[in-house]
Design brief:
This protein is of the alpha+beta class. It has a domain of 57 residues: Nucleotide Exchange Factor Grpe, Chain A, domain 2, CATH 2.30.22. Helix content is 61%, strand content 17%. The strands form two sheets. The protein has a three-stranded antiparallel β-sheet with strand order 1-4-5. Strands 2-6-3 form a three-stranded mixed β-sheet, with no helix packed on it. The longest helix is centred in the first third of the chain and has 92 residues.
Length: 185
């Protein structure tokens, strides 16, 4: 009988040990699940941070490319202005119309290149003065147009994708103010 009691006690001890082991394993499993969830959350945050970083780098690269493109196109505009003056001089001399036509053809090619890259001229004459797109370099006293209207364009300005690439140099109107002597003597 003692053997049966010992055997029963051993079985009960084994069951209690197994229950204790199961409880321990469940705690370890729960701890491991919590750690895995924590690692998964960290991974998600790192992935989101990396995605934001990648987007920021792409945005900065696009801005840099646009800036370099603007600098290059501005140099082309200066060349275009000088070329335009050469064409005008050749027209005044009118020695060889074939040469003038050839020069005008090249000027059209330069204009089409600029247009294809998104460069658009700023319309100035007859518009109200806008300091965002115009540089006023002269004033003209005029009564026939509203005050602060652009009366002449000294140098053409250009926009690139909605931003000012080079402002127009313009002459703007001012009202003529006449002094009158109102003293009664």
């Amino acid at each position: 009988m003692t053997e049966k009691v010992d055997e029963t006690l051993t079985k009960e001890a084994t069951v209690e040990d197994k229950d204790a082991q199961i409880a321990t394993l469940r705690k370890e499993l729960q701890t491991a699940k919590e750690a895995a969830e924590g690692y998964l959350n960290k991974l998600k945050y790192l992935m989101a941070d990396f995605d934001n970083y990648r987007k920021q780098v792409d945005k900065q690269a696009a801005i840099k490319i646009e800036s370099i493109k603007a600098e290059l196109l501005l140099k082309f505009l200066n060349i275009r202005d000088e070329y335009q003056r050469a064409v005008e001089t050749a027209k005044q001399k009118d020695r060889n119309s074939v040469v003038v036509e050839g020069l005008e053809g090249i000027l059209k090619n330069i204009d089409s290149l600029l247009s294809a890259e998104g460069v658009r001229p700023i319309e100035a004459v007859g518009t109200p003065f806008d300091p965002n797109v115009h540089d006023a370099i002269a004033f003209s006293p005029r009564d026939d147009v509203p005050e602060n209207s652009v009366t002449a364009e000294i140098r053409r300005g250009y926009m690139l994708n909605g931003k000012v690439l080079r402002p127009s140099m313009v002459e703007i109107s001012r009202k003529i103010i006449k002094n009158s002597d109102s003293s009664d003597e």
